[in-house]
# Entry
Amino acid sequence: MRPPGMRRLIGILLIVAGAVCMMLSPGIASAAISSGDVYVSSEVTGCNSLARRTAVALLDDPWRAASTANSLSVFRSLTLGALGTTNVLATNPSTFSFSGSGSTGSVAVSLRNVPTGPVTIGAAATQTATVGVSTNRELQGCAAYPSDLYDATNALTSPFWNESGGTSTTLNAVLFDFSTPVRAFGAWFGDLESSTSTPAQMALFNAAGNLLYTQAVAATGTCTGTPPPGSACSSGSTRWI
# Structure
């Protein structure tokens, strides 16, 4: 979740292999969730470039290794749209299916407005998100793509989910609502701003909407107050959660 006044939140290429940025999942007991179950990568800061895209592509490697060590051998990505899709308005929520032959289940992705204070699931936002590829083939705030999902042309670049509206009085959040339980889940997030006064949060809820676990997603380096442009407060950076 993003602090009030920070208008934009991006999730790109959601990989299922559970818990990230607001997750609603059936059948999980609160006793099963701890900080050791959540992986938050370091950040790749600075605008989109070959070196940064290469670094971003490596951010999920420790998560994949940990998942494999827990006997998870099949990884599925969510199909957000055809390659080269350009800024198609998304419904709220938008439902996406898993890729791969024989895949079942889906994930409903929605934009939420969450009041400040104790973490809640909030209310569905009236603002709209988009799914597509930007003109410069970069995430919001010029944050870098992972190299294996990027191409030199828009037509062959994977689309991402983008929110660029939001309100100035509530926290912006993206909710992932799974139709069936999953063992692990992660996504690249671009321009996920966080400050010491109001850090970004990830939260896990059960199917009834009850909070099971929450954890701050802190910015790296020195950051106070409202994020300025640039790499401070995670503005324009990419990370895997």
Q: What stands out?
A: The first strand starts at residue 9 and ends at 16. Confidence is low (pLDDT under 50) at residues 1-22, 25-31, 227-231. The CA atoms of residues 92 and 210 lie 21 Å apart. The chain is about 5% helix and 30% strand.
